[in-house]
Design goal:
Blueprint lengths: L1 H22 L3 H22 L3 H18 L9 H20 L25 H10 L2 H12 L4 H8 L3 H19 L1
Helix pairs in contact: 1-2, 2-3, 2-4, 3-4, 6-8, 7-8
């Protein structure tokens, strides 16, 4: 158990050293960060975007932001989590600027958030494809709520909408996703 804690601490120390090397402009350190995290984070960007090209653009823009801001990494928490957060936030900001984000049609009543999003037998590849077919606002809120585990208050703050609008968008995203998966 103690050994595990030492290894975890060493990982964070290595992360900090890697971040500091990137901040100094060390190209091999930057390449290491990109190669080790890029593939995983591309799949996250893909969930937010309509197609692979747009996801790659968001990943590229996100890594530019990461390397601009990497000197701010404090070593608390893993570097991967920090990089992912920066890129997801950059992706959200990029998509907000590119798209009219939300279709704002009110619901009489906001349904229970615990409703099942997907049928249990849904295949992951089909789900990802169907998510990419959602309107940008629906897709954004669904990703932030389901995958990033953000609250409606956090989503509202990030997107500049009300928490109730976030709930409505999530509900509409779930309904549309169920239709697409059938």
């Amino acid at each position: 158990m103690k050994l595990l804690r030492i290894e975890k601490k060493r990982e964070h120390t290595d992360d900090l050293e890697l971040a500091l090397a990137c901040a100094r402009g060390d190209k091999s350190a930057m390449d290491h960060v990109y190669r080790n995290y890029g593939g995983k984070i591309l799949s996250i960007c893909r969930r937010y975007t309509a197609n692979r090209d747009e996801a790659e653009d968001c990943l590229h823009d996100g890594f530019i932001k990461v390397f601009e801001k990497i000197g701010n990494y404090s070593g608390k928490g893993g570097l991967y989590a920090w990089v992912k957060t920066v890129i997801v936030n950059q992706t959200i900001n990029t998509l907000k600027a590119r798209h009219s984000m939300l279709e704002l049609s009110p619901l009489e009543e906001v349904p229970n958030e615990e409703d099942e999003v997907l049928p249990p037998q849904a295949e992951p590849e089909k789900v990802i494809h169907c998510i990419s077919q959602l309107p940008p606002g629906y897709r954004m809120v669904l990703n932030m709520y389901v995958f990033e585990q953000m609250s409606h208050d956090q989503i509202a703050e990030q997107l500049g909408i009300s928490p109730n609008t976030s709930r409505t968008q999530l509900h509409k995203a779930r309904l549309r996703l169920k239709e697409l998966i059938k």
